[in-house]
Amino acid sequence: MLKVDKKSIIQIAIPIMLGTFIQNIVMITDAILVNKLGTVAFDAANNAGLLYLVFFMLNKGLGDGTQIQIANEFGKNKPFAINRTLNHSFVIQMTLSIVFIGILFLLIPLFTQNFVANKPIGEAMETFLNYRMYGLIFAGIQVSIMSFFIGIGKTKIIIYASLFLAVLNIFLDFGLIFGRFGLPEMGLAGAALASTISEAATCLLLFYYLIKSKHLKGFEFTWVKQFESSRFKQLIKLSYPLMIGGFLSIAVWFVFFSMIEQGSAFNLEVSHVVRNLFFISFIPIFGFGATTRTYVSYFHGKKNPIQIKKSIKQMLILSVVFYLLFFHGAILYPHLLVRLISDNPLVIEKSAEILQLVFGSMLIFSVVAILYNSVSALGKTFHAMLIEIVSILIYLIFSYQVILVYQWDIFYIWTVEYIYFLVTGILSVIYLWHYYKKMNRYYYE
After folding, report:
1. Which end of the chain is more exposed for a tag (fewer CB within 10 A), N or C?
2. CA 404: distance to chain centroid?
3. In the chain, what is the straight-line distance between the N-terminal and C-terminal CA atoms, in Å?
4. 289-306: per-residue pLDDT in tens?
C-alpha cells in the first residue's frame, strides 16, 4: 500500500533520481572522453545519440504505459494481472526493438548523406550508430523491468542496476575508446560499443533479480504461457499515445539541433554542451514525474480522488525543492559546470550564459512535469499526447523562425524552451481542471 506523505514519496523517488543521476554521470563522462577525440567526434556522438534517443523514447513510452497499468492493477490488488502485464510488455518491447533496428539499418546511410550538412560529422554519426543501435533490444527490456518495480513502489534495485551500468560503461569507455586494459582502440565506435555492452549486461542483471529476488513477496515473476489479445490491445491502447508523444518530443529536439547545425559548428558545440548539462535538471524532474505516475494511477485504481489530489500537491512541492537542490549550479556557478565538458574559453562563456537562461525554463518544467504526468496516470494518455503535439508544433514553428529565418544569436534561440514548457503546463492545467470538475461522476457513476 502506498502512503501519501513526503517521507514515503521520497523513499520511492530517491532511487529513481539516483538512477537518473548515475546515468547523467555516465553521459557527462562519455561527453568528456569523446570530446578528447575532437569536435567532429563530439558533435557526431551527440547528434547520433539524439537519433538513438528518438527511437528509445518509443520503448520508454511503452514502459510508461506498463508502469501506469501495473500501478493501477496494484491499486486494485491484482498481482497475477501485474504478472501478465509485464509478460506482454516484454513481448511488445522485443518486437518493437527489432523493428526499430531494421529501420535504423536502412535509415542511417540515407539520413547522414542527405540531411547532415557537415560530411565528416555525418560519416562519424554512421560509425557510431552502427554499433549503438543494437542497444535498443536491451534498453527496451530494461525499461519494462524498471517500470514494474516503479509501478509497485519497490525502486531500490534501480540504484544498484544504475551503479553497475555506470561502472561497466566507464570502464569500457576507457578501454574501447583509447585501447586500455587490453581492449582494442576503437575511438568513437568504442564509445558506442561500450554503451551497448553495458546495457546488455544491466538488462541481464535486472532480469536475474526479477526472477530470483526474495523481496518481491506477492509479485513473484512467472512466465505466462498463454498470451491474451485483449491484454495486448489494452497495453497498446494505453501506451501508444505516450510512445508517440515521447518520440515526437525527442524528434523535434533532434530537428532543433539539426537546424542549429545548419548555422555554425560553434553554435552546435555550445548547444551540445548545454544539452549534456541540461540533463542534470531532469534528475529530480523525471524522478518525481515517474513517482507521480505510480501514485496517481494507484489511487485511480482504488477510486480515491482525494488521495490523487493530495499526491499531486505533495509531488509539486517536492519536485521544485529537489530541482533547486540539483540544478542550482546553473544559476550560481555555471562556468564551473561547463568546464567539466569543455576547455574552450568561448564555448565556456556562451554555454554558461545559456545555462543561466534555461534555469528558469526548467524550474517551470519541474511543476509542469507533475501536472502532465498526472494526465497520463489517470489513463488519459491520448489527451496527454494531444497536449504534447500542440506544444511541439508551437515549439517547432518558433524554433524555425528564430534559427533559420531571423538567425538569432544562440543565446536567444534557447528561449524556445520557455515556449514549450509554458504551453505544456497551461494545457495540462486546463485539462486537469476540467477533469476534476467531473471527477466524482467519473468514479462513482
Report:
1. C
2. 28
3. 25
4. 989 998 999 888 888 888
